[in-house]
UniProtKB/TrEMBL annotation:
Keywords: Aminotransferase, Pyridoxal phosphate, Transferase
CDD domains: AAT_like
Protein name stated in the entry: Aminotransferase class I/classII large domain-containing protein
Species this protein is from: Glycine max
Pfam families on file: Aminotran_1_2
Cofactor(s) for this UniProt protein: pyridoxal 5'-phosphate
Domain Aminotransferase class I/classII large: 138-303
SUPFAM superfamilies: PLP-dependent transferases (SSF53383)
Length: 328
């Protein structure tokens, strides 16, 4: 689909936005000052500790509880590799971000389908998904490790505030927070992310990072220092901008017949259901959109992992009826 979109020079509603000029300048200065070696920037961990305290009231040790990684994607993978043994299972909700699936496939991913159109959780399904092999859940549970993905922590709507699961009583010691720079600062290709976890887990994650990528890119860690020092007004204006973009795209797509029952409460993606009178699948629709309108979006089926032939779930046809539009 990406190749077709490139050939057609399609407008990309799949991803992407330009980086803010002050961050570009920070990265350029770092490159010019020869920040070009393998490097761990303790300053990034120090700033993260400050932010986590301000936002969630959590005390963390910036020397021991943080692992800087190449984006949330590596932080998540390293968290999985650091904590799971062969045969362990991880519970994931479905639909979910694509890379989770690839990481847990080496161990065992158990998908709990959320129910459309609001993507709510039927609470009877969750306990049935736990087995004696379950080691972690990507979200929340009492007796298991929780791995959270908080990349949209600063992009929330309707005055909602992001609350980290780790800030709930008793959760900090069993939660690995993963997050990154890209979404909050419009720098998806810079690959700076982190895991924040109790020291023994963070140390295991750093160990995996050391064997896999051995540090996030140095100049972008330098630029992260500038980003993470952004004043509260930066985040307020980020939220205001996205709020108007979200409201605009909902109106626009709703106006041409898309069914938008689930209104995003964070992120800059809209998961829109194809109009009832559209006979195409998500993939067919996106191909046609590229060829005839010169616009590319993402077919929704890549976000679903529940087996289509599963007996437990009677009707999963909805998996081919969603398209993801970015509004960044
Ligand atoms: C929910 C979610 N998590 C993680 C990521 C990837 O983050 P990173 O670029 O830091 O690896 C994305 C990117 O789209 C995302 O939507």
């Amino acid at each position: 689909m990406s190749q077709l979109a490139q050939r057609c020079n399609a407008i990309n509603l799949a991803e992407g936005f330009p980086a803010p000029p002050h961050l570009k300048n920070a990265a350029v200065s770092a490159i010019i000052s020869d920040s070009s070696q393998y490097r761990h920037l303790q300053g990034v961990c120090d700033l993260l500790a400050k932010i986590v305290k301000q936002m969630h009231g959590l005390d963390i040790d910036p020397l021991k509880d943080v692992a800087i990684c190449c984006g949330q994607s590596e932080a998540f993978a390293a968290a999985i590799f650091a904590t799971l043994d062969p045969g362990d299972e991880v519970i994931l909700f479905d639909p979910s971000y694509e890379t989770y699936e690839g990481c847990v496939v080496m161990t065992g991913g158990i998908h709990v389908p959320l129910d459309p159109p609001q993507w709510t959780l039927d609470s009877s399904k969750l306990p049935r998904s736990f087995t004696e092999k379950t080691k972690a859940i990507v979200l929340n549970s009492r007796n298991f490790l929780a791995i959270t993905d908080e990349v949209y922590e600063h992009i929330t709507y309707d005055n909602l505030k992001h609350i980290s699961l780790a800030s709930f009583p008793g959760m900090q010691e069993r939660t690995i927070i993963t997050s990154s720079l890209p979404k909050s600062f419009s720098v998806t290709g810079w690959r700076v992310g982190w895991a924040i976890a109790p020291a023994f887990l963070a140390s295991a994650i750093r160990n995996i990072d050391g064997r896999v990528t051995d540090y996030a890119p140095a100049p972008f860690q330098e630029a992260a220092l500038t980003a993470l020092r952004s004043p509260p007004e930066y985040f307020e204006s980020l939220r205001r901008d996205y709020q108007s973009k979200r409201d605009y795209i909902i109106k626009l797509l709703g106006g041409v017949g898309f069914k938008i029952e689930f209104i995003p409460q964070d992120s800059f993606f809209l998961f829109a259901e194809l109009p009832d009178n559209c006979p195409l699948s998500d993939v067919e629709f996106v191909k046609k959109l590229i060829l005839e309108a010169g616009v590319v979006a993402v077919p929704g089926q890549g976000f679903f992992h529940t087996n289509l032939s599963s007996n437990e779930v009677s009707n999963l046809n909805y998996q081919k009826r969603y398209v993801r539009f970015a509004f960044c």
